[in-house]
């Protein structure tokens, strides 16, 4: 397989975009990435999206995006794996270039959620869970995460307030990210006073939905000018677990995260201690804790310690959510994986501004689909 | 890139499967393919599906299928490009094996449409068209095809009854296919008496929806025993055109079909005259005519001549719909691409029974997404 370099990225602000259609959002991110990369044409387009069928009554986003950005005739498809759709699309783009089939691929993650009534979005998000064995019995997606968190508190003796630092760190970092949905610092006090959504998950444990798109341009590393191909994909892996939580051997262990992270570490030839920045999938604070554990940064049940000790801050042992994470940057579900990747690239380029991690060589982005049932991990490396 | 062999296929009957859930249908086809291939485990799963979000309130089919067939932990995603989702998934599986990343991939196409009320399916199918510029103005998916057909009749001087032979041939061949939805021969008289759906498309111009799943197992050709790896992927290509018909340069020319077919011919090192069997995308008879033209079997405007002359029958110059085509086998949208591929494989294996094409070496399957906006073409070759 060929080495693959990421030579361009693009993002739109995550917001309620009443003035932009689905294709405009995707196009804005895609064209930004193409300008960033200095390319005017791509050979193929991979779109990560979860909800457009339900939210926008529009399927077929491959053709929609390829056409809109002036790349009609390019090969184009949509890739879906619930909330990890963005990274799954990135992986499809990566394989197309690594294989030798495609020389220049565009990957776009896009989601436009705020046009739809809230109930429709709740129904839509629940399609990530098991329709027959979870949703039909009344579980929403938040409820599933609440059950996992409740069990976690019980097993490991934490209290809900011990998760506050995950959200405080995310909101702190988002202050410096122009693309983040929230620019609003929070405190332990506001966290503990925030309204309960589904016990024990309160409003500030949960990430907000939003409209947004992010994109990346991938090329064969040998073909790109050396100054442009400094950031390569050092590891790319995906794994699944059961769709329903109750079918898992251990509901508090993200087995698919462990699997995909281990594969990516082996491909990159490194271990967790060499990761300088980790964009994790903090859709809920419980997922932040579980991700840190499954990726090898904390022992089982010890994720919240890292947050409480400040290890997750910029300058700490393992900086996370350096642009606000899902929690404060926002979580336009099918686009999130591309935001995470764009943020890691910015860090490796040294373009992360106020939240720049010092001199990073390796950055990791991990995207979780469903309640842990489809997890995609990428490790990026800066070559000097 | 490595050579890729198709070593197993599986199909379920296309029908109203009230007794089978989405996962059971997909699983039945997947497990049949695995038994056919003699493998008990796959490295990755690619699911082609278009409508499960709307029809079954279930996204995340990668994890759903991988788990159900006992391959939990395998990498798995859903690929969508409207009605060409099945072939797009096959192409993703092909690239994963050709790249060297995956040794054994399962591709499943599945669609369960008949649980939903008709209006919901009409809405769902319309998501394949342009929501902003076509559907919002009142066009359904049949209506779009009717506009194309009307223009075709006007431009080339045909009458609607000249399309009868496409459907008669399809129903004739479906008589011998146990997986076909219809086992019901039709005649010119029944064709011309059939009720109008959307002028000039009548009921017997149009393919029926249905529930169904089909699957294939792909492996690195060098790894498989010689007797199992006789059928290889000789060409695989995809191309897009504008999502909306009105944006196309020539609404009567399937540009994306021409592009993807030409690429596939070049990859296989052949031309149309060497194709022994062609499973085309006869969702409507107008698409049958346009496909034959774009793939190089007829001059522009002359597609219906091939049908009228009998060239499309088994034993003719270019046999099509040899198992009934979309018209009579049925069209469970996201699964169709895999049915087409399974049928070409059966022909190349010499296992096509009563509709066996004599001693074929090359077979082609072409799958159309939308009204021609995303077209995927595969050429398979039997090595002796």
Automatic annotation (TrEMBL), chains A, B:
Domain of life: Bacteria
All residue ranges annotated as the Thiolase N-terminal domain in the record: 6-221
Alphabetized InterPro entries for the sequence: Thiolase, Thiolase-like, Thiolase_C_2, Thiolase_N
Pfam families named among the record's database cross-references: Thiolase_C_1, Thiolase_N
Gene3D superfamilies membership: 3.40.47.10
Limits of the Thiolase C-terminal domain: 238-382
Signal peptide bounds: none
CDD domains xrefs: SCP-x_thiolase
GO molecular function: acyltransferase activity, transferring groups other than amino-acyl groups
Entries under PANTHER family matching the protein: ACETYL-COA C-ACETYLTRANSFERASE, ACETYL-COA C-ACYLTRANSFERASE
Protein name: Acetyl-CoA acetyltransferase
Species for this entry: Candidatus Brevifilum fermentans
